[in-house]
Automatic annotation (TrEMBL):
The keyword Nucleus does not apply. GO terms for biological process: protein import into nucleus. It comes from the Eukaryota. Residues 86-122 form a coiled coil. One of its GO terms (cellular component) is cytoplasm. The chain crosses the membrane at residues 59-84. Keywords: Coiled coil, Membrane, Transmembrane, Transmembrane helix. The lineage of its organism: Eukaryota, Metazoa, Chordata, Craniata, Vertebrata. Signal peptide: none annotated. This is PTTG protein. The gene is Pttg1ip_1.
Length: 145
């Protein structure tokens, strides 16, 4: 029982995890498991020690609350940042895809334009040498003179 360690030392009392040391009257008492925090009638939080003797229960609770708050805030920030990055990367990918499609269409139009220019130039050369077929009778035989 924890009461057997009363009037000894805090270290001896806290070797048993189920014990709570109270500095007001130097007593070792059973930790009140049913209530999370020990009641002030049992021992004030600033004078209660649990786990280690060098930090009081009040400071331990505050430190744990701060650490838990920091963890929750960092998780929230990470989740929001990841969601923002995903949304941003999706929009960036869509923009890149649209840009590639525009460039592809521009290249296709330029290719068609060059093809048309080549056809005109070839037709002009054929016309110059009399090789251009008559469009009225495309099946007429070409005769050498």
């Amino acid at each position: 029982a924890c009461s057997a360690f009363s009037q000894q030392s805090c270290e001896e009392c806290l070797k048993n995890v189920s014990c709570l040391w109270c500095y007001t009257n130097n007593t070792c008492i059973d930790y009140p498991v049913r209530s999370i925090l020990p009641s002030s009638s049992l021992c004030s939080l600033s004078n209660a020690r649990w786990g280690v003797c060098w930090i009081n229960f009040e400071a331990l609770i505050i430190a744990l609350a701060v650490v838990a708050g920091l963890i929750l805030v960092s998780i929230t920030v990470c989740c929001c940042y990841c969601c923002y990055c995903r949304r941003r990367s999706r929009s960036r990918l869509d923009e890149e895809e649209e840009q590639l499609a525009r460039k592809r269409e521009e290249r296709r139009l330029q290719s068609l334009q060059r093809k048309h220019e080549r056809k005109l130039k070839h037709d002009e050369i054929r016309k110059k040498y009399g090789l251009l077929q008559d469009s009225d009778n495309p099946y007429s035989r070409f005769e050498n003179e």
